[in-house]
Amino acid sequence: MVAMAESHSILEKLKPSDIDNVDPQREVVAGITTFMTMAYILFVNPAILSATGMPKEALVVATAASSGLATLIMALYAKMPFALAPGMGLNGYFAFTVVPFIAGILSREGVVGVEAWQVALAAVFVEGIIFVLLSVTKVRESVANSIPKNLKYSIGAGIGLFLTLIGFNDAGLITAQVTKNGHLIALAMDANAFHSPSTLIALTFTLIAAVLMSLRIPGALLISIILAITTGMIAGLTSPPNAVFAKPDFSLFMKMNLHGLADLGFFTAAVIVFTFFVVDFFDTLGTATGLASLAGYIRRDGKVERIGEVLLTDALGTTFGAILGTSTVTTYIESASGIEEGGRTGLTSIMVALLFFASLFIAPLFTVAQAYATAPALIIVGLLMARAIKEIDLHDYTEAIPAFLTITSMPFLYSISDGIGIGFITYTVVKTLTGKWRDLNPVVVGVALVFLGYFLSLPSIRP
Question: Cβ(154)–Cβ(385) under 8 Å?
């Protein structure tokens, strides 16, 4: 009886509002469900970021620690049943766009002793600080209302296609070179893709993940990754981990290089930081709104309860994530699985945080994932993000064309930031020349001008 009373007392402190019928046991189950649904990030994030040269086991620790810390802040401060982790899409932007670009600049300038990923971490850190400042002021509402909704949706959808392209490449399914038929991107027939065990495993478990997702089985992506790794071990493609337990490797702690970021120049640094920020900010806003609606935390005036606390938590998560050594941390839509299980309070998030913290001590288990094993998750997550296309107004061409160019530019140019820049510039020009300049605002025009300056300066800054 005492234990029951204490659990309800704790629950009262973790409730965001006066809600009824909250069961502590259900909250714990909801937390476990959320963790199982999003634990694939412990495999996928290190697999993506390690392409930059960052140590994989340290990345597992940074991923688990930043996810646990940010989710714990969500529980204790925002009191919402939302979980956070390094964001999909932003980790791809970090690893496959920002780091190679910075590395090229450092190489051209003859800079030694500076790792490109350290400079990229600095950009994430600065983005987090800006997000924190906006979250504690009234400016955040102005920024949130300034970006046209169709551009917001197109950014998410474009990132989804970008991730899918990476997934296809990791699966060994495509070749990105000119073939005898003249294709720039084509089926990797010349490499005998369908005779490659790794490609066959990736395709098989993409289909299995699709079936599991369709059956609404919690942890579908995690299950597909684990089964793909196991199959790879049986086929001799992957070696088992040397150990199960290990002391957490925090070697990525405080590795960001702010001086190196400043040396990139204004336009380059501004575009990198802004891209991190705009995707993080609006992804969080959209995700939080959707989750709050599912949990019943939308007020009668249409506002999300404690949205300020949620945004600040996300901003702090990004900042601490950069300090710990990972890309942008953001609120996860997978939290919906726990909410559907009855999660309504911060107790759900505490359970998720504890499971992430426990993962710190089994990091070797998450380092065995090869690209073919995480490819199915990238392909399926690409679909989940691309669903935003249905929200875009395709009837007004002044809205549809900039959105379309944003979406298609990201995978075809292999750059999230270039896609965002093309979208903002096109939106500004089309609205102005069609007499709809009243749809513009200083934020949109300012961002378009920054990207224009960036594109014009590319011949001098691109390696």
Answer: no
Q: How many CB atoms lie within 10 A of CB 154?
A: 30
Residue 111 pLDDT class (50, 70, 90 cuts): confident
DSSP states of 357-384: HHHGGGHHHHS---HHHHHHHHHHHHHH
CA–CA gap between residue 102 and residue 449 (Å, rounded): 22
DSSP code string of 22-78: --HHHHHHHHHHHHHHHTTHHHHHHHHHGGGT--HHHHHHHHHHHHHHHHHHIIIII
Q: Does 4 score more than 50 pLDDT?
A: no
Q: Give dist(CA 193, CA 184) in Å, integer.
A: 17
How far is C-alpha 339 from the geometric centre of its chain's CA atoms? Answer: 20
Nearest to 87 by CA among 54, 124, 51: 124
Position 3 confidence tier, pLDDT thresholds 50, 70, 90:
very low
- In tens, the pLDDT along 168-201 reads 999 988 876 665 656 677 777 555 566 789 999 9
The angle formed by the CA atoms of residues 236, 242 and 243, to the nearest 5 degrees, is 135
Q: At what angle do helices 220-234 and 24-38 cross, to 10 degrees?
A: 50
Provide the pLDDT for residue 2: 45
Cα distance between residue 386 and residue 213, in whole Å: 16
Both ends of the chain: CA-CA distance in Å?
68
**Given pLDDT bands bounded at 50, 70 and 90, which one contains residue 249?**
very high
Pairing of strands 329-331, 84-86: antiparallel
Helix (H, G, I), strand (E, B) or coil at 189: coil
pTM, whole model, 2 decimals?
0.87
Cα distance between residue 386 and residue 460, in whole Å: 34
Maximum Cα–Cα distance for the chain, whole Å? 75
Q: Return d(Cα 2, Cα 18) in angstroms, integer.
A: 23
| Angle, CA 147 vertex, CA 141 and CA 153 arms, to 5° | 115
With b meaning 16 or more CB within 10 Å and e meaning fewer, what string describes 394-403?
A: eeeebbbebb
> How far apart, in whole angstroms, are the C-alpha atoms of residue 315 and residue 323?
13
